[in-house]
Amino acid sequence: MIGGRLGNHAYVVGASAGLLLAQQLALMRETTAEEGTLRRDLDLRFVSVVLRHGARAPLSENFGAHDHKWEYCGQAYHAVKTNIRGLDNTDRPVSQSDERQTKVVFEGGCKKGQLTSVGQLQALQLGDWLRERYVSNGFLPPSYNASALEVRSTNISRTLDTVTGVLTGLYPDAEDPIMIETCDDRREWLYPNHRNCKRLSQLMAQKRVTLEESRMAGSHAALEEKLKTALEVPASERHIRFVEAYDVCKTVLFHSARHHMKMDDGLLRELELVATKQMKAFVAPEDNAEMLSLSIGKVLQDLLQGMERAASGKLARTTHRIAKC
């Protein structure tokens, strides 16, 4: 556990928020391996930060999820005001996916997939780190300025709550609402979205067939039997959905520091390896360049174009971009 104070916010967290990518055109103070000295001849022009949401409640109601008391979702800090808008400054769209999730409430108060208090503090800690790195050195203005910051999030409650935490850590004294841009489910490109791409939907369907053929061949039969016993899966349930089972077991362990039902370290690790491999087959396939391109190609293209515009001096306003997936 890490304890400390972020401005006026006390915090206790187990892990920092997932900073997947922080790309910089150049560092104002960069230590080089050859020189071993601080570089002062480079100019920082533009920063892109891409992050995942913080710790959350499970996305599944199966595998005993309702048997656990989910009492981890209280408000952890006082958030800055935000203004959530659709693309091109339209009204915030309705997310049917988010509505389906948030209408499910577990015992204890957490909603399905909701950002927990620990997840909120993870985001707050990341925002404070960004403030120390980019506000304290003068790259970003000391007070929130809309012309210096662009924020984009998927239209899901836990991701919007996460980026709100990051913004609170970045500009804890902001008085004006900070704008967060999002879009409707069908147009989203910050995650592999088969809803708006027929070809990606076809490729994912083919991948599911491949995984099902592997399962039918008995590739994970022994693991399935162990999980059925540990998670008390009814005899009528023929097969285990590994990603779903891992989600429930991992979120229970992370928030309660106790294994779910009859799970143990070894079995959870075995489940993790299979679940990760199956998820990777859809979001980061090594055997299908077309599927990979259709999944994350536009995200990487946007990041690259932002850096190229900044390097060429064509970037009109924004110097710092945060994208929440």
**How is the CATH topology of the largest domain named?**
Rossmann fold
The global form is: globular
Count of β-strands: 10
> What is the mean pLDDT?
86
Question: What gyration radius follows from the Cα positions, in whole Å?
Answer: 22 Å
Distance between the termini: 25 Å
**Secondary-structure element sequence?**
EEEEEEEHHEHEHHHHHE
Strand content: 5-15%
User: What profile does the largest beta sheet have?
Assistant: 4 strands, mixed
Number of helices: 8
Task: Indicate the topology.
Elements: E1 2-6, E2 9-13, E3 19-24, E4 30-31, E5 38-39, E6 47-51, E7 82-85, H1 96-102, H2 117-135, E8 149-153, H3 157-170, E9 178-181, H4 198-216, H5 221-230, H6 242-256, H7 265-283, H8 289-312, E10 320-324
Parallel strand pairs: 6-10, 7-9, 8-10
Antiparallel strand pairs: 1-2, 3-6, 4-5
Helix pairs in contact: 2-3, 6-7
Family: Belongs to the histidine acid phosphatase family.
GO molecular function: phosphatase activity
Protein name: Histidine phosphatase
